[in-house]
Amino acid sequence: MNRRYFITLAFIVIFVTVASYVNLPDNPGLNIGIGNARLVRDLRYHLGLDLQGGLHVVLRATPAEGQNITSDHMEATRDIIAERVNALGVSEPIVQLEGTDRIIVELPGVENPDEAIALFRETGELAFVDLGKSTVPPIQV
Question: Considering the entire predicted model, what is its pTM?
Answer without folding.
Answer: 0.56
